[in-house]
Amino acid sequence: MLESFYPIIGQIVVYLFAILLVATIIIAILVVYSFKTEAFPFPNVMLSGILFLEGSIKAFFRLLNVDDSIADNVVIQLKNKISLKQFENLPFNKKAIFLPQCLRSIDCPAKLSPEGIQCINCGQCDIGGAKKILEGMGYMVFIVPGSSFIKRMVRKYKPEAILGVGCVPEVKGGLDLCHRFGVPAIGLVLDRDGCVSTSLNWDAFCDLTKADITRLSRS
């Protein structure tokens, strides 16, 4: 009796595999299209598809010798698009900004504390001046070495929206973390990443924060 079901089960498996393959190809094409054009058709549906098929999409890209990190970039842009209006509508004092410690000068004299790097505005990098302006606007600003600090600060200060800066993996992980906390978040990827001497597009940062940081470098 059971043996009569084997062909049916096999057919179902084949159909499911075919559906997943077609869905993977469609979403992969949309990812490439969005990455190149910065247009995001059906953002919520597309985001759900990428997250559900992320492993398959990246494997498909690797098979075609395409950089699979573009999927992470598109996920970040989609989440930004979905959260942007909520982020912009909140007053500054309800929002937190998390900057990565790698954005500091390599000779930074600031010390690590339970709330991240305590900037002393020594003038060796742009963070000190930006932090002073942003905090004057009402933002909560933190310079952090890792996600454990973000969790701690979110639990302690309970911001209603977050802007996080970092490399692609850190930003993607941070947005996932904020989603679990139920906090709308925007991610800004560094222009140049690495462990030290990274750089940020301050123009894009100013657009998001509405801060006038014109005297800071744009390198």
Overview of this protein structure:
There is one protein chain. The protein is α/β, with parallel strands linked by helices. It folds into two domains: 2-82, no CATH class; 90-209, Rossmann fold (3-Layer(aba) Sandwich). It is 53% helix and 13% strand. The chain has eight helices and six strands; from the N terminus they run ααααβββαβαβαβα. The protein has helices at residues 6-37, 43-52, 54-63, 69-89, 127-137, 147-157, 168-181, 202-209, and strands at 95-100, 111-113, 116-118, 140-144, 161-166, 185-189. The strands form two sheets. It has a four-stranded parallel sheet, sandwiched between helices. A hairpin with a 2-residue loop joins strand 2 and strand 3 (116-118). Helix 1 (6-37) crosses helix 3 (54-63), helix 2 crosses helix 4 (69-89) and helix 4 (69-89) packs across helix 7 (168-181). The longest helix is centred in the first third of the chain and has 32 residues, at 6-37. The mean pLDDT is 86.
Briefly say what this structure is.
The chain is α/β, with parallel strands linked by helices. It has 8 helices and 6 strands, in the order ααααβββαβαβαβα. The chain has helices spanning 6-37, 43-52, 54-63, 69-89, 127-137, 147-157, 168-181, 202-209; strands spanning 95-100, 111-113, 116-118, 140-144, 161-166, 185-189.
